[in-house]
Amino acid sequence: MAVHPSLVVFAIVALMAPAISSATEFIVGGDDGWKLGVKYDDWAKDKQFFVGDTLVFKYNAGVHNVYKVNGDDFKSCTVPSNNSLGSFTGNDTIKLATAGNKWYICGTSGHCDGGMKLKITVLDGGAPAPAPSAASTLLATNFQIFLGMIFVIVAVVMVN
Ligand SMILES: [Cu+2]
């Protein structure tokens, strides 16, 4: 059975397009969120962060907060005097706008030393477009898979 190569290529591109172009939203800590007792090194180590992705810190706003710091302040758990990220809502979304190392800590006394600190490396090559909502990403992904399957079927039917 022969399938026209150009159709196969098209199907593969259609299937892979969402993985290449979609921005990802990371819930820091996954289901645990942002709190004491979570190993954020472990959470981050198998993930790739790209420019255009977002981090969401979910936490009890009366107990925790999130500060973006530099590498030295990360090591020493020094809380900055100003909050460069805006307000502490307990559901803080942070867009990863530039590549490089990023450091985040909780500013509540003792919490950074207690493990509430996250270091990530953001890579170039993510989506330049604004991040779509999770729902529209899902729809687009399903639609692309649907499209890919249609082309595979058409390709198979055409050669038979
Ligand atoms: Cu905290």
Percent strand equals: 15-25%
Q: Looking at the structure, what is the overall shape?
A: elongated
Total discrete domains = 2
- From the structure provided, what is the oligomeric state, counting identical versus distinct chains? single chain
Number of DSSP helices? 4
Q: What is the succession of H and E elements? A: HEHEEEHEEEH
How far the N terminus sits from the C terminus, by CA atoms, comes to: 8 Å
Q: Main sheet?
A: 4 strands, mixed
Name of the top-level CATH class of the largest domain? Mainly Beta
Average pLDDT figure:
83
Tell me the helix content. 25-40%
Structural class: alpha/beta
Fourth-level CATH superfamily of the largest domain: Cupredoxins -  blue copper proteins
The assigned CATH architecture of the largest domain is: Sandwich
Major sheet: arrangement of strands = 2-7-6-4
Radius of gyration: 21 Å
Q: What is the CATH topology of the largest domain? A: Immunoglobulin-like
Ranges where pLDDT stays below 50 over 5 or more residues in a row are none
Subcellular location: Membrane
InterPro entries: Cupredoxin (IPR008972), Phytocyanin-like (IPR039391), Phytocyanin_dom (IPR003245)
Domain Phytocyanin: 24-124
Organism: Hibiscus trionum
